[in-house]
Design goal:
The chain is of the alpha+beta class and about 120 residues long. It has a five-stranded antiparallel β-sheet with strand order 2-3-1-5-4. The protein has a single domain, classed as Alpha-Beta Plaits (2-Layer Sandwich), CATH 3.30.70. The chain is built from four helices and five strands. The chain is globular and about 55 Å long.
Amino acid sequence: MSLKILPPTLRKNNRYLTVEVKSISPITKDELVSIVWDACVRLQGELNSSNFNLWVMRFYESGEFNEYYSYNAIIRCQRGYEDEVRASLALVNKYKSERISLTTIGLSGTVKASHKYI
């Protein structure tokens, strides 16, 4: 017996944030996941953050500049919680005693549409 796929009318609607990450030291996708979760839990708390349905979908290296590393990422969150996630990410300024900046550069309804912001 195979599992049935949930129909679109019963699925949660998602939004995709395109985020630009600038860091003094290089970071990995796993480190970005912990940065995003820590930021949301610190500002919103565990109970509210569990509703966000956060997931780092894509992680791209944009390049290395003279004084910082630049990355782009696509982060999934549940519709209706975009502002809370954006506020949490905007407050991040340090990771492992190094300066870091997370800036939301786009918001879309599909992963494909979020690629136009990168």
